[in-house]
């Protein structure tokens, strides 16, 4: 659907493989960091493996890929935009989501620091913070009608997000229509955080 886009298939938790693959790609003007894992465990049962995997994918990979891409943007002297896909869970505690909420909160703050430090290079950095999105991962974690009903009842618009809801928000933040927006979090949550 998108000519000129060449996907790279790699494990973002593998620092060296990511460095090699992303450094060889480019040139870059835009970046969307969307990879994430959600390993749901009660706080008292969080495992080291779940914590490490979540930190590797949800935070370290974003930092690392963004470093590589931003360095290339700066070297080219071109303005750019980075959008990090966060979550409403960065700002609201959810049962069994201790690790996920924490990594997404860290991602929001990382994005703000990136916006501050990359702004002088004309690189904008923002996050989109969706509610549950009906991806494969969303369906797995929210397929229980009793669990999903409790969440949907807290969303004023009364539904979970579709992929296009998030994609359209990302496209806005990548575009010149948001040329004066950086360091912001765009909530795509149907009003969840105001309820």
UniProtKB/TrEMBL annotation:
<dbReference type="InterPro" id="IPR036291">
    <property type="entry name" value="NAD(P)-bd_dom_sf"/>
</dbReference>
<dbReference type="GO" id="GO:0006006">
    <property type="term" value="P:glucose metabolic process"/>
</dbReference>
<dbReference type="InterPro" id="IPR051737">
    <property type="entry name" value="L-xylulose/Carbonyl_redctase"/>
</dbReference>
<dbReference type="GO" id="GO:0050038">
    <property type="term" value="F:L-xylulose reductase (NADPH) activity"/>
</dbReference>
<dbReference type="InterPro" id="IPR002347">
    <property type="entry name" value="SDR_fam"/>
</dbReference>
<dbReference type="GO" id="GO:0005997">
    <property type="term" value="P:xylulose metabolic process"/>
</dbReference>
<comment type="similarity">
    <text>Belongs to the short-chain dehydrogenases/reductases (SDR) family.</text>
</comment>
<keyword id="KW-0521">NADP</keyword>
<comment type="subunit">
    <text>Homotetramer.</text>
</comment>
<dbReference type="GO" id="GO:0004090">
    <property type="term" value="F:carbonyl reductase (NADPH) activity"/>
</dbReference>
<dbReference type="InterPro" id="IPR020904">
    <property type="entry name" value="Sc_DH/Rdtase_CS"/>
</dbReference>
<protein>
    <submittedName>
        <fullName>DER reductase</fullName>
    </submittedName>
</protein>
<keyword id="KW-0560">Oxidoreductase</keyword>
<dbReference type="Pfam" id="PF13561">
    <property type="entry name" value="adh_short_C2"/>
</dbReference>
């Amino acid at each position: 659907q998108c000519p000129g886009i060449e996907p790279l298939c790699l494990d973002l938790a593998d620092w060296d493989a990511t460095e090699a693959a992303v450094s060889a790609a480019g040139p870059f003007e835009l970046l969307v960091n969307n990879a994430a894992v959600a390993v749901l465990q009660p706080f008292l049962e969080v495992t080291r493996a779940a914590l490490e995997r979540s930190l590797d994918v949800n935070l370290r990979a974003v930092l690392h890929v963004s470093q590589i891409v931003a360095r290339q943007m700066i070297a080219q002297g071109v303005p750019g935009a980075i959008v990090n896909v966060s979550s409403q869970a960065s700002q609201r505690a959810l049962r069994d989501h201790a690790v996920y909420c924490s990594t997404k909160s860290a991602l929001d703050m990382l994005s703000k620091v990136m916006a501050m430090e990359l702004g002088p290079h004309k690189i904008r950095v923002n996050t989109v913070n969706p509610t549950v999105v009906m991806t494969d991962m969303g369906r797995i974690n929210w397929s229980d009608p009793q669990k999903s009903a409790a969440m949907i009842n807290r969303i004023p618009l009364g539904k979970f997000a579709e992929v296009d809801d998030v994609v359209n928000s990302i496209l806005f933040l990548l575009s010149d229509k948001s040329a004066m927006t950086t360091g912001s979090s765009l909530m795509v949550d149907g009003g969840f955080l105001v309820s």
